[in-house]
């Protein structure tokens, strides 16, 4: 059977995205297939499509972008327990495939039950942001009473990391553009702006103590983050490849062979039901409008995620 999916058959600007027909995918061992209700758009998807990601050369064209999706399970692979056809779930594809989510059907590698009151858009755009935030907070061992600085707090990963760290009892300072200061405060962090003078601004904010720092922006702030925490061992980055040279851990998840934060999905769903977590969704587009969604994703400032919703008929 052929099914619809967003696709691109050459690298380039967002306009290369169209809707095409593909053979239906099937759930492999430990996987489920969902009829997609919503999918996320991430910076990684945009970089892959533009041909400027180191992984662009690893994908075959035509390619279906997107790694995050939510939907209704319609096929359960071997060795899956606790999930049945008809369950509403959210999660992500096998990220090593670098795509496959913005389609009529997607195969998920990790997932959790979608809380009934969580919108499809929030659920569809959550998977890898929750996984990445959980993995890096685990790596930093963020606990009650710690002061954590998050550089890039208003974005997809940062907006989740702020809330999950606050839920762990940490005091969080989050950086963003001037336009995002109130947004960061609403997420639960003490806001400040990023860029030059960061150590001075952070020290002026409170008692000056910063125990831990998480760089989700990859904008070159690692020396300042090390200055603030006083040791590179207390800093983790997900986006700055100069990190290891400075003694900072670069967390790449499955790409780096690390333990994943997949357990974070069920935990985030539980926090959602307690009213302590939400996924900020900046804007929602129909799948057929994926080019507009990618164009928006290439512009700042960010306020959380961008989502695609699946139409009843493609
Ligand atoms: N290693 C991993 O496992 C992993 C997983 C997911 C993502 N990533 C990578 O992590 C990065 C962030 O992903 P995302 O989904 O959170 O992206 P995003 O939604 O685009 O957010 C990026 C954030 O960076 C902020 N920012 C922009 N310029 C900055 C600067 N000079 N200093 C500090 N912050 C700045 C933006 O703030 P304003 O909007 O306020 O300007 C925005 O909040 C991307 O490079 C992505 O490829 C890595």
Automatic annotation (TrEMBL):
One of its GO terms (molecular function) is oxidoreductase activity. Keywords: NADP. It holds the Pfam family ADH_zinc_N_2. It comes from the Bacteria. InterPro entries: ADH-like_N, ER, GroES-like_sf, NAD(P)-bd_dom_sf, Zinc-ADH_QOR/CCCR. Residues 12-308 form the Enoyl reductase (ER) domain. PANTHER family: QUINONE OXIDOREDUCTASE (PTHR44154:SF1). This is Oxidoreductase.
């Amino acid at each position: 059977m052929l099914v619809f999916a967003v696709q691109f058959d050459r690298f380039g600007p967002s306009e290369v995205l169209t809707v095409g027909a593909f053979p239906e995918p099937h759930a492999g061992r430990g996987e489920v297939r969902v009829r997609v209700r919503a999918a996320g758009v991430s910076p990684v998807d945009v970089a892959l499509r533009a041909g400027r990601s180191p992984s662009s050369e690893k994908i075959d064209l035509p390619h279906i972008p997107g790694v995050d999706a939510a939907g209704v399970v319609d096929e359960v692979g071997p060795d899956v327990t606790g999930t049945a056809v008809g369950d509403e779930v959210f999660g992500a594809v096998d990220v090593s495939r670098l795509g496959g989510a913005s389609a009529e059907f997607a195969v998920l590698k990790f997932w959790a039950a979608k809380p009934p009151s969580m919108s499809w858009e929030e659920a569809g755009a959550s998977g890898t942001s929750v996984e990445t935030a959980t993995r890096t907070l685990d790596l930093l061992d963020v606990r009650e009473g710690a002061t954590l600085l998050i550089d890039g707090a208003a974005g997809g990963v940062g907006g989740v990391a702020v809330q999950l760290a606050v839920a762990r009892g940490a005091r969080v300072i989050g950086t963003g553009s001037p336009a995002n200061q109130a947004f960061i405060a609403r997420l639960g962090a003490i806001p400040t702006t990023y860029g030059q003078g960061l150590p001075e601004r952070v020290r002026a904010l409170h008692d000056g103590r910063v125990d831990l720092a998480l760089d989700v922006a990859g904008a070159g702030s690692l020396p300042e983050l090390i200055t603030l925490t006083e040791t590179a061992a207390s800093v983790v980055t997900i986006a700055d490849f100069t990190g290891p040279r400075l003694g900072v851990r670069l967390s790449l998840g499955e790409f780096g062979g690390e333990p994943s934060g997949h357990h974070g999905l069920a935990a985030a769903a539980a926090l959602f039901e307690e009213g302590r977590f939400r996924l900020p969704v900046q804007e929602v587009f129909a799948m057929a409008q994926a080019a507009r969604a990618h164009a928006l994703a290439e512009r700042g400032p960010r306020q959380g995620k961008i989502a695609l919703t699946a139409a009843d008929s493609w």
